[in-house]
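Title: Prediction job returns without error message
Component: structure pipeline
Severity: low
Priority: P3
Assignee: unassigned

Description:
Job completed but the reporter wants confirmation the result is attached to the right record. Sequence as submitted:
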Amino acid sequence: MHYLIQAERFFLRGGMVTGGYLEIVDGCFGTYFPELPKGDWEVRDYGTSWIAPGLVDTHIHGYKGHDVMDNDFEGIKIMSEGLLSCGVTSFLPTTLTSDRETLKNVSRTIGEHYQEVNGAKIQGIFFEGPFFTEKHKGAQNPGYFSDPNLEVFHEWQTLAKGLIKKIALAPEREGTTEFIEAVTKEGVHVALGHSDASYEQARAAVYAGADIFVHTYNGMSGLNHREPAMVGTAMATQETVAELICDGHHVHPAAAKALIRSKSPDKVALITDCMRAGGMPEGEYILGEFPVIVKDGAARLKDGDSLAGSILELFQGVKNVIKWDLTSVEEAIRMASYVPAVSVGIENQCGSIQKGHEADFIVITPAVELKETYLNGQSVYKK
């Protein structure tokens, strides 16, 4: 397999370029040519369309009626295939707070089968919990909350065959500093969330090595001019990456703008926090152990009005950021591809169009509509 793609724009690792030809060789990106090189080439002409890296969702619980916590890999395979229609070519299946044994079983299932997916590639696992506190619990079950435990984490990581790339915790729990220092040395990224931590507590966790904030603004102590708290720490620490759900329900566009301006687009990762109702009709669903009602584009706990994940598709998040005039198109795409990949240390596997990387990319229109998704240089989804 050796061909050239011709298009109006290419969003390359080094920046956006106009016109030209991108080489695809043996399923990987080759050279970008400003002009058609000499030779007898197969050229796939995409006319006025744009070529961008496949999107990377590093925080997603479910899609198309399936959830990671079902511990059913056939369901995860359906998620993987469905995500191609969202422009997503790589993702981190995301767990919820649960009991120790359930999380062991989920870790084992993904660790043993992750290479069997045919759609978006599993590049790791995100453990969202169970080391949280109750005040900002969201749709996490506080009955399973506990202090960070390195021995328990290593059980999960061993069963997952080292796939856990990110784990979230609340900085105010006992033993967080020691836990963060230990797992970050093992290459695991620590995220902060579902927490009522003070600025000092959150800043200490960052100093220990935590470098991500979980769905910023949601599930954390809010910014006050006298107590910056978790949100203020996210804004004030330039070395960290802030996750952001841009579905119009979780975060007001003005608040999203404030976060992006305080950190820069290169430090904000668009995520979905999508649950099983993504890509499905409105109605009643389950998230973890909680009944959820999906209505008017939002998922909320049936008992109360708290948001329970989202039904956002990542490409729609990109479109929203552009529609709200928060960033350029190039920046919005990076926030959903390269930035999340860097945030969990998988940028050498995905997230950019770079020579030698697997040719996972999307074709979009100048109006920012998804037309086609490629994996390993082969078209796998066409709208």
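Comment from assignee: result matches the submitted record. The longest helix spans residues 100-113.
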